[in-house]
Fold this protein.
Amino acid sequence: MSTPTIPVTKTTHSNLANFNMNEIAFGKHFTDHMLVADYEDGEWKNVAIKPFSPIALDPSSAVLHYGQTIFEGIKAFKNDKGEFVIFRPDQNLIRFNVSAARMEMPQVPEWLFIEGMKQLINVESGWIPTTPDSSLYIRPFMIATDPYLGVRPSLTYKFMIILGPSGPYFSAPMKILIEQKYTRATPGGVGFAKNGGNYGASLHPVELAKKKGFDQILWTDANEHKYVEEVGVMNVMFVIDGKVITPSLERGTVLKGVTRDSSIILLREMGYEVEERNLSVEEIIDAHKKGVFQEIFGVGTAAVVSMIKQLAHGDYLMDFDPENMPIANALKLALHEIRMGRKADKHGWMVKI
Ligand SMILES: Cc1ncc(COP(=O)(O)O)c(C=O)c1O
């Protein structure tokens, strides 16, 4: 289907002039407009860009009871050439539709997801922060809207895109606890999907870890808590004896991160060996005892590359110097340079708006 021009209703009271682009708190501020679309009778309709506002939902809406909801997180930037670019939104569309299929929700076509996002960003171009390392965070999501309390897939849905300016995301090096009781995802479950319930279920164990003085959890497999999976809401990478190792996707319990995929490609291009495989806590501790556990970092859209300064397994503490993580730092710089247009985008990752 060719891309329809989406009707735009402009706000009469923009918040842009009053917004301080130098004081941006992630996730708290949204732009003036949003994209909305309804799924009814097997098709997407009522697609529109309108002033950002609360939405009315019937209290019996399926999403409020059974969690039929999925989302994505993407960033747009103003690069050094002054162009507005989005990082690999095609990958987020693929993942969104993988999540939709798992949650028995309808597929969202490219014209609605990608073109809708571009048209919305065009309307909001004044909201893209230009301060170094800032971006415009893009949050597409879909919710089940049937006013019905029976447990079955909804017949109606709402797809929306909202945008929020995002400041330079400095993530302080983290202290991480290896989780030995709770589980984020199980084989056969929904860990590979970006559905809301995964995140709700993670809150309690993360709060328990915070009470013990940690910033986040290193999730381990559901059966034995033996193999590592993800760190908080990021994919995780280890450098052991010069090799980069990241948990494989095959059990369906690790989200297929766009940053993870991009990192694997870039690290291999830089000449590093990257292994996607099961990595046990035992192997990690053994490597630490031998002095060959060199780096550990998280990768994800929000913070891109996040250094980890301490990893704990019960009382056994493994400490790292974030300044002395050459691979993590080189990866961070490479991703940044591609986004800013300083380095050739040979894979065509940057999509111009
Ligand atoms: C559970 C989880 N893992 C990993 C990631 C990193 O994925 P991406 O690089 O696509 O942001 C995210 C964030 O989207 C996430 O929510």
